[in-house]
Amino acid sequence: MSQLARVSIRTLHHYDELGLLRPSARTEGNYRLYSAGDIQRLHRILMFRELGLALHDIRAVLDDPEADEVQTLKLQRHLLQERAKRNQAMLDALETLLAAAEGELTMNVNDMTKEDLSKLFDGFDPTEYEQEAKDRWGETDAYKQSAERVKRYTKQDWEGIKAKMAAITDAYIGLMDAGTPPESPEASAIVAQHHAHQCRWYYDSSPAMFANVSEMWVNDPRFTKNIDKARTGLAAYQSAAVQAWVKKQ
């Protein structure tokens, strides 16, 4: 079955554990036996996975007689279109970085227009919260370090930062779609990248400080709304993953 479908044995075992693909029978030695019907079901599972559906959604479509497969596919089409927009934004960022590398772009972020900022941050204007951030954290070392760093960043720097964060976000979403627990090693690996990204571009952050930041993602509706634009529930998943990662440090 693994060879026919070109999936790993581990994947088949995982689908069995989830109740997504139960083998029709087992041998006396407890080997799984798959029927032609099982192969057809696996084919549909792999098709839906290729479209980006989460495993629990696939199971609902296949097992729930009242599930609306057409509506599910339409929803997934919308999600894929949104992902395509993010991918295009990353391509645009790469084009900007290439132009910078070739000496065609040297604009500093302080020279950007409102339109530039809106496009760069997907409609989010960081200047609207600049005073609030200064009032809350202006006296901290982290704020001073961040302010000193970001004022030197050019537009191409911001494009690169955005592209890297988009990749991290997509990795979180991929784990969510696969049903991977936030406390898993896979999630911790992404959190480590996220933490390194923050330390590289903004300020030196201890794991405990990063945990405090992650609590804001779920406790401040503005953060939640902005993060969940990529996928509903993403803010909560990221926050839980960070909290789990910090406990391991």
TrEMBL record:
SMART domains: HTH_MERR. It comes from the Bacteria. Residues 1-64 form the HTH merR-type domain. The keyword Aminoacyl-tRNA synthetase does not apply. SUPFAM superfamilies: Antibiotic binding domain of TipA-like multidrug resistance regulators, Putative DNA-binding domain. Keywords: Activator, DNA-binding, Transcription, Transcription regulation. Pfam families: MerR_1, TipAS. The keyword DNA-binding applies. Gene3D superfamilies: 1.10.1660.10, Antibiotic binding domain of TipA-like multidrug resistance regulators. PROSITE patterns: HTH_MERR_2. This is MerR family transcriptional regulator.
